[in-house]
Description:
This protein is mainly alpha-helical.
Amino acid sequence: MNKNVLYQFQRWSALSGFLVMIVIGVCWFGFARLQPPFSPSESAEWVKEFLIDNRSGILWSSVVISFVIPLEYLFVTTTSWQMRRIERGWGPLSIIQLLTGVVAPIGFMYPLFVISVAAYRPEERSPEILQVLTDMYFFFYVGFALIFVLQVLVIGFAVLLDKRRTPVFPRWFAYLNFFLGVVLTPGVFIFVVKDGPLAWSGLFAFWLPCFAYLAWKVATPLLLLKAARSEFEESDDVAEPIPA
């Protein structure tokens, strides 16, 4: 691939990380009202009324999010590409990041399908069936986050292993990834609790991971933009100025 094209591809891929985060946040917090999550202790009748009241917001949010979720693959690919520079070629860390990152869109789409089924015709379904579907949604959406612990850990290790004079990523980025990995871990306990900080709406299972992920999702695209620029400048065979 032409160096200019590669540089522009990585720029837009990094920016796609912002777009995915913004769209999902606006849809889920603003229109669908699925975030912050409601309590697992809510009754089946309450869940049915919630789905009826928010049916349009949930279903239209699902439509909008479906258009942007595939852009996450661009973001994941560019992250692995920059890790490849650290490993001097495709190595275990960049490959693990790529494979775990491929799961990221699925972690959004599967819950999306489940909650869309629940909201599609809630007035025709029994409260118990709708409660089962919303339980599945939150189990997928919050509990699924544990798989990303491996992803952020390998990114962090790659950053620490970078011995280049000018590292691809700054060292503090490693510790941000490690911190995110730690705060994502309690999400696995939502399967055995219904209230408190480890419930799917709790401090340790939702709020801390949410804010840590927000910080990571802001920092990572910015660092990818910087890394892509440094890769372009390191190229010996490019005489053209860096595109604006």
